[in-house]
Amino acid sequence: MFKELDPILHSQLRLAVISLLISVKEAEFTFLKEKTNSTAGNLSVQINKLKDAGYIDVTKQFSNNYPQTICKITAKGIDAFEGYVKALQSYMNPNGQ
Fold first, then answer.
1. pTM of the model as a whole
2. Torsion (CA) 4, 25, 64, 59 in degrees, nearest 10
């Protein structure tokens, strides 16, 4: 009756990152850090988990001699987010009404 929740997205910080990327398609690391109010270390770990799952692509480059990390949501990430939302809806409306 209840759909299984994606364990990758069932983390508050990873869900926040994916939610932000759904709306902006791609974002720089510092933007994600500010919006999620997380530490750089924790955000880095969670971004790597999302990358390993194939939910985001990560590009590392330099801008004005400073390192820059760009995160972009993938089609798989969009599908996973949509599935997660549908699964949550099944919990909020268990009788399908």
1. 0.90
2. 50
